[in-house]
Amino acid sequence: MRYIDDTVVIKRMTKRITLNKVWKALFFLATTFALVTLAILLYRIVTQGVDYLTIDFLTNFASRFADKAGIKAALVGSLWLMAVVAPVSIILGVGTAIYLEEYAKKNKLNDFIRLNISNLAGVPSIVFGLLGLTIFVRMMGLGKSVLAAGLTMSLLILPVIIVAAQEAIRAVPNDQREASYGMGATKWQTIVRVVLPAAIPGILTGSILALSRAIGETAPLVVIGIPVILQFLPNGLLSQFTALPMQIYDWAKRPQEEFQHVAAAGILVLMTVLLLMNSIAIFIRNKFQKRY
């Protein structure tokens, strides 16, 4: 007596193999489309902006003439912005993640907080711009300063850093915590000497990727009214400044064709900064990552 009908098995296998080939072809087309689009975009930006990417472009201030326009104020302003965003967002983000993962009890309130933090990571950036305009610019009277923009950008990337730090802390095996407690260490000593060192690669990788988003965002800066053309550099946290995305946005919307090329050169500078930051994140992850 035969329990398996070979004809039925072959028919079903053929159908599954065909379906697998169809899905494989669709995924390949999706990947190819994304890569071709990215290649066309990069080719157009490089061919448009590479001739304007000179030392004078990096050292000149903005100008109403395309051949004299430079990105010095925007580049230095972005570095000032990161000097505020990085410490504020990383300290608050990692601190929040440590509390939620190591100290907070498992109850409905804390689950609700964790769920909302995750949801905040997907809120449009312009909403954080309106929040920064209301709190930092108007209520606290910080104006269009480096500090106001830095705090606004910190709010924008804070949920991303919290989620990344939570995942990194959660990935540390409980065996290591229990071994530390078994040696007589306190909870704080276990966190500082066992949990954080093991979670640092994941925390830093998530933080640097979040900072890369902050340096390229434009909408929050537009909402809080950051100027686009300045002929001076910021000299403090309360100074006015401009940033790379704002400068590129101003050049890109001008009707003169020459400024389109200048905007492409600015995009190349911004992409170089982003690639540098992402490379650091990849290096840190590969060098310090541990497999349990």
Which features would summarize this protein structure in a list?
292 residues, mainly alpha
Question: How would you characterize the overall build of this protein?
Answer:
The protein is mainly alpha-helical and 292 residues long. Helices cover 75% and strands 0% of the residues. The protein contains 11 helices and no strands. It has helices at 6-49, 55-59, 72-103, 108-120, 125-139, 146-170, 174-182, 187-216, 219-223, 244-252, 257-288. Helix 3 (72-103) runs antiparallel to helix 8, helix 8 packs antiparallel against helix 11 (257-288) and helix 10 runs antiparallel to helix 11 (257-288). The longest helix has 44 residues, at 6-49. It is globular, with a radius of gyration of 25 Å. The model has no long low-confidence stretch (mean pLDDT 87).
Structural class comes to mainly alpha
What is the 3D shape? globular
Helix segment tally:
11
What helical percentage do the residues reach?
over 70%
Unreliable stretches (pLDDT < 50, length at least 5) are: none
Mean pLDDT: 87
Number of strands: 0
Secondary-structure map:
Blueprint: H1 6-49, H2 55-59, H3 72-103, H4 108-120, H5 125-139, H6 146-170, H7 174-182, H8 187-216, H9 219-223, H10 244-252, H11 257-288
Helix pairs in contact: 1-11, 3-6, 3-8, 3-10, 4-6, 5-6, 6-8, 7-8, 8-11, 10-11
Explain briefly what this protein structure is.
The chain has helices at residues 6-49, 55-59, 72-103, 108-120, 125-139, 146-170, 174-182, 187-216, 219-223, 244-252, 257-288.
